[in-house]
Write a structure and sequence with these properties.
The structure is a single chain. By secondary structure, this protein is an alpha/beta fold. The chain has a single domain, classed as Rossmann fold, CATH 3.40.50. Helices cover 29% and strands 16% of the residues. The strands form two sheets. It has a seven-stranded parallel β-sheet, with helices on one face. Strands 4-8-7 form a three-stranded antiparallel β-sheet. Strand 2, helix 2 and strand 3 form a beta-alpha-beta unit. It is globular. Bound molecules: 2-phosphoglycolic acid (PGA). The site of 2-phosphoglycolic acid has 8 residues, from loops.
């Protein structure tokens, strides 16, 4: 029996889970603003964080949540896609968050996957440097792919991987192909590495919907396995798994305080 340190938060409905995640982020920003400290967020894209960002935007508009001292680093971006392409993660972030809150543009960092191939290694190294210069990530938001990826750390990804160029696998192609014309979806992406993610001081992985039930069950019984990149999170001292009821429906003990398995 290997111990998991992963805290499990289960909510009956998707919206409850989204609001809980947004509330944690908003409280962190608020508290650090009060202390005169900046907040460094690691952000995710995909369907999972959309409701989280909507709630953060609502709190900005209705409660004055102030993003002026927030710096953000996004997990990943497609290679060879213009930042203006509607399926790019640059465009996603502008649409769902950046254009709707008072976050200065030069405090947002999304990997520049549109640069020429020969510039990508330098871009990844620079991204790691920028995270370090910002003082590290206070809070990292994660989704999870049906193949167990976090960011675009496709299986297999080692626990000591850093920000790098990766090849997208078939599961990821199926999950994202709707945003692209036939044959247009990139085969490569840039992603923060597993080790880069694990250096965040707080990590919250949100898994929402029945489509995530099988990978949640697999995660419950898998530790430190490159074939399930999210399984490295079990060892993090301050990470939580936030689920709605459908995503947790196959777990052995979905109401337990830990997500630990074997
Ligand atoms: P999703 O993607 O939020 O659209 O399910 C998650 C992921 O691929 O990490």
């Amino acid at each position: 029996m290997l111990p998991s340190k992963l805290e499990l938060q289960s909510f009956p409905r998707r919206n409850d889970a989204e609001i809980a995640v947004a509330a944690e982020i908003a409280d962190l920003i608020h508290d650090r603003n009060q202390e005169g400290l900046p907040t460094v967020l690691g952000l995710a894209t995909g369907s999972t964080p959309i409701g989280v960002y909507a709630e953060l935007v609502r709190r900005h508009r209705e409660q004055g949540l102030d993003f002026s001292a927030v710096t953000t680093f996004n997990l990943d971006e497609f290679v060879g896609l213009s930042p203006q392409h509607p399926a790019s993660f640059h465009a996603f972030m502008d649409q769902h968050l950046f254009s709707k809150v008072n976050l200065p543009k030069d405090q947002t960092h999304v990997l520049a996957g549109h640069l020429p191939m020969e510039a990508l290694e330098e871009e990844c190294a620079s991204f790691e440097d920028r995270i370090r210069q910002a003082g590290g990530i206070d809070f990292q938001l994660l989704g999870i792919g049906r193949n167990g990826h976090i960011g675009f750390n496709e299986p297999p990804s080692s626990g000591d991987s850093r920000t790098r160029l990766v090849t997208l696998d078939a599961t990821t192609h199926r999950a994202y192909q709707d945003g692209f014309a036939a044959g247009e979806m990139p085969n490569y992406a840039l992603t923060m590495g597993v080790a880069t993610i694990l250096e965040s001081r707080r990590i919250v992985l949100a898994a929402l919907g029945e489509v995530k039930a099988d990978i949640m069950l697999a995660l419950q019984g898998t530790f430190d396995d490159p074939d399930l990149p999210a399984s490295f999170l079990h060892r993090h001292p301050n990470a939580a798994l936030v689920l709605d009821a459908p995503a947790g429906s196959k777990l052995k003990d979905p109401t337990g305080s830990q997500a630990g398995g074997k």
